[in-house]
Amino acid sequence: MRVFIDFGDIKCARQVFDEMPERDVVSWNSMIAGYFSGGFEYHALEMFMKMHTFRVTPSTHTYSIVLSFVPSVCHGMEIHCNLITKGVAFSSIVVGNSLIDMYCKYGFVDYAFGVFLDMEEIDVISWNSLITGCCKSGHKDMAFNQFCIMRTNYSPDAFTVSSALTACFGVQDLAKGIQIFCLIIKSGFLSNTIVSSAAINMFSKCESIKDSVSVFNEVDLWDSAVCNSMISSFTYHQLEENAMRVFVLSLNKNIKPTEFTLSCLLSCASLFLPPVEGTQLHCLVVKLGFEQDHVISSSLIEMYSKCGLSDAAKVIFDHMVIIDLISWNSMILGFAYNGRTVESLELFGELLKTGPSPDEVTMTAVLLACTHGSLIDKGLYFFHTMVNKYAVKPTDAHFTFIAEMMIRAGEVDKTIKMIATMPDGINSYICKLILGSAWIQGDLELTEQVAERLVKLEPKSLFAYMVLVKVYETSGRWESAARVKKAMKDRNVRKVVGCSWIGVDGLFVFKENEVIHHGGEDVYSTLRLLLQDIEEEGCV
């Protein structure tokens, strides 16, 4: 039976199990574990129930297996009660640790603490389960506090410090993260790939990408987990070229990319136009057999949509076997992003008929489509019904799209009243929209009020200062215009230099009015020859 389970033939294993004249607890455990490893959690739970019917007493190993896949916390509580009546819950470290994991998985951290405090004996794994559970449940500060308490009597292992680092970047506390990093170096854990990956992620999420690069270079471990952490860190900080470079180097080191690797790279491939890198990554996805992975498929849809190839994105969407809400959102947003309002709203209608319930991202995509299509009435309808009809609470993004539609329709006064109800107050984008409208209408008082608000939100924003200068000069208020110009100079507010870029054997950026750049002499020599040919042809 064990041989069949190891080879994944659960059907033959069950047949052997049913034909056994005597079945002890080890046989039942093997069958339960086999169902669980094969993805048949329901059958595994059914075997656990039959075990009681045949009056076979479960072992601590049985309970630890079952607690790892119980479908709900209610099932877990029933097993917990059964353990208490048998006197096993507090005496077994293995069972106690499994209970802690189970309660934390479902967010019942207080129950996990109750189990932890009632255990007769605890070990490092018990502490690891509690700390990791706190992290996964969103209680990052609590996780770090437990790590500090643990160190008074127990020595942390590699798994403990990696969980503590996760807690630090969850609350973006770089100071605590550095303290743990020093402990890691002192304890010699940095060579562990899990720890080094966590350290790279911690520095990245705490806005210290240089330290992430330093850790990556220092450990010099060309491992899938470490490379993935570095690639995701670069993409998180919008350093897409660096992410691609690490990926190419990892391929040279014969490191096979994972689904996570490709998903990270596809998210930034849209910045390279034409999408050569994106199509190459797509080919690699097919070659590795990841095309049916719904996360990869969603990333491909997003990549092609951002490149303006929404038809290619729709082909991928139509060939998906399992379409989750993320995939629906990616495709609806892809159509909206490319101005294809009708297709976006039609797909939203299909989602309402056959797909899962829409969330706030779905409604953001729908309102974006309405904005691009100037469908004000539809946009307002979706906005006013999204709470009652779809149970989606409006966010700043939803308010922003509605504000943009109303301002374009000339409803500035109504927009100002509406944005007063925004959860986080007016944002800089809405300020710019109102400022542009007030400037055109010649409303000086409103222009000054909104410009003052925009300067507070974006002190380095040129737009607010330039609008004020234009308005003051138009109305003949030269002293006011001079004061604004002086404020710009004092605050070092300068015009943002525009640029164009082209991807030819790399990425070359051409700034506005730039004379000297890569290949500049050849470019201008060719331009002079073209102008000479045009003059000779008499076209000018």
From TrEMBL:
The keyword Repeat applies. One of its GO terms (molecular function) is RNA binding. InterPro entries: E_motif, PPR_At4g14850-like_plant, PPR_rpt, TPR-like_helical_dom_sf. PPR repeats lie at residues 24-58, 123-153, 324-358. GO terms for biological process: plant organ development; RNA modification. Pfam families: E_motif (PF20431), PPR (PF01535), PPR_2 (PF13041). Keywords: Repeat. Signal peptide: none annotated. NCBIfam families: PPR. This is Pentatricopeptide repeat-containing protein. It comes from Mikania micrantha (bitter vine).
